[in-house]
Design goal:
Blueprint (H helix, E strand, L loop, with lengths): L1 H18 L30 E2 L20 H13 L4 E4 L4 H12 L5 E4 L21 H24 L3
Parallel strand pairs: 1-2, 2-3
Helix pairs in contact: 1-2, 2-3
Length: 165
Amino acid sequence: MKLSIQIQAATLMVTLALAFPALSAQTNAPGLFTLRQKTSDLLAGEFWAICYSGFRAGQHPDRGEGAKNSTNEQMLEDLRILSTAGFKLIRLYDAQTNSAAVLRLIEKHQLGIKVLLGAWLDAEISNTNCPWQRAPYPDSMLAANRIKNEQEVQRVIALANSSSA
């Protein structure tokens, strides 16, 4: 598993270098580039960040039938690999159970990783110009989404206030 995550991280770095060739002019190693920003301009003073969900084969967030989350041991293994690879800033997609566990693990094991905590929000209006959803959503769905979104925002606030990561 460690090799898989390392390969994924290396692939991401190479992809970034290929996608943004102007940024890769000052290269110290293949696939790596130096950003032309002052450290004071960067979030938490970090040049590198990575999105993290922690799900492995057969695991997934709640798709209406309940989540199949990673174990704390699996997430801790991932976080240690990311930390050792130099990632001190990660982005989480939502404020659900998995993200709460990641925040607890970072603090408990003093991993020195900062977190950009995301909120997973669903549509509250119908946008018929949207390329993947041209048909309008039913009003009942939009109303339910508003309630779910408010709950998600409240979870984000609660997790952010309770965490130092």
